[in-house]
Amino acid sequence: MADKHTSGDGWSDSIESLLKPKICTKSKFKEEEPVNTILWPRLLARKWTLMLFVGTCLLYCARMAMPICAVSMATAFKWSKIDSGLVLGGFFWGYCFTQILGGHASDKVGGERVLFISTGLWALITALTPLLAQLSSHTLALMTLARFLMGVLQGVFFPSLASICSQRIVEADRGFVMSTMHSGSYLGTLLAGGMGSIMLDQYGWPSMFYSIGFLASLWAFLVWQWFLKGEVIPTPQEAQYRQSLQTKWNLSHMLHLFKKPPVWSMFFAHMCAASTSNTLLSWLPTYFKESFPDSPDWAYNVLPWLFAIPSAFGGAYISDSLINHGYSKSSVRKIMQFCAMGGSSLFIMLLTGGAFTSFTSALIFVSVAVGLSTFTSCGVSVNVQDLTPSCAGAFFGFMNMLGAFMGLVLVSLSGYLIEVTLTWASVFSLISFVNSTGLVVFLLFGDARRVDLEYCSRISVI
């Protein structure tokens, strides 16, 4: 560590240089990354992965509770279609509101703590929904407010997962963990549909909210007792590491990162993938109901999601295997995104052809398209942890917000196209076009090399 000297007393100069502290600034260590001291051990990471999988499942059960009970509630409270739309739409406006804030908070204090607090709150709202509905004559306003607050609290979930993977999970396992989390959403959708149908018939719509609220509250309690050990404040070691990793949050630095081609191409690709996925899922039941009125409802409401779960795990295995066999992360991200957006678009376009009009063929094409779309969990969804790990939660929240807003636009535009053209081919063509555009941009400009190092604090005393 001592400097070389060409004159004077070499021994005394060496002693002096050893005793004098040196300040290593970020410019000197610009290309180096700090050693991650808060990674979970492999066994703990597996336990957290299982717990977060269950949490994602419950999240989607709670999210789907209102859509499943909407018809029964509309009958009970004499809601019109417009009234039902107001209640259901309240969730998405709230969901867009806290994406960035939730991600930034997770980067600062830890995503697992943000998830614990938010889950406890939205579980309480879920359990209290039937009581709020009977509280006064303003049922419509109270239900809309409840759904808005549900969206606000659930909006932090996936940005927090991105932050957790960036700070707590080793790079080789991040694709598997993210895919596992997303597969929990498919299982939650299946359970909500199956459980909801039985509970509505046997016990009425309030039972759906009571049971999901109780299970989510139990999940939050177990996380607090088993994993956080009753502590929700970061340890000094965690706080020190996160402080060394934090990006300087000012407008000029953020805009500089946004201008980098890998970053904005990732944002654009995620926006296209998320919006087209939301559009497809919103209109698929209507497509099958109108195109094949005699087909069984359970087939198209269940089979695509059953196919999506093993597909998500298969994509994670392929992604991690490619990285372990020496493929660059950039290449793996692009390969997975090509399958997710390019492959799914191909099968969606097959739905526009006149030769494929049978219910069986349409169900197969939709199931394969939904299954391939899960590969995005190992593509742009995890790419934010490659490019900007110091603010992965906040950046994931930003691009998830873009996807949610764009989804609202595409869903409305699709309804207009169906009304005007009287055909579903225009909707499927729109979805394929948006998907293909996002894919081309990501293939051309996407990367997986870290770009935020120059803005991370690097001051330490040697």
Describe the protein in words.
- Residues 1-31 and 457-462 have low confidence and may be disordered.
- A two-stranded antiparallel sheet has the order 1-2.
- The protein starts with 9 loop residues before the first helix and ends with a strand.
- The protein has 462 residues and is mainly α.
- α2 runs antiparallel to α6, α8 (171-202) packs antiparallel against α13 (297-324) and α13 (297-324) runs antiparallel to α14.
- The chain is built from 18 helices and two strands.
- 76% of the residues lie in helices and 1% in strands.
Q: Which strand-content bin applies to the residues?
A: under 5%
Helix content bin = over 70%
First-last Cα distance: 9 Å
Shape: globular
Return the average pLDDT rounded to an integer. Answer: 81
Q: Quaternary state, please? A: single chain
Tally of individual helices = 18
Q: What is Rg?
A: 25 Å
The secondary structure category is mainly alpha
Query: Would you identify the regions where 5 or more consecutive residues have pLDDT less than 50?
Result: 1-31, 457-462
Describe the strand arrangement of the main beta sheet, using strand numbers. Answer: 1-2
Question: What is the makeup of the main sheet?
Answer: 2 strands, antiparallel
Tell me the series of helices and strands, N- to C-terminal: HEHHHHHHHHHHHHHHHHHE
Tally of strands:
2
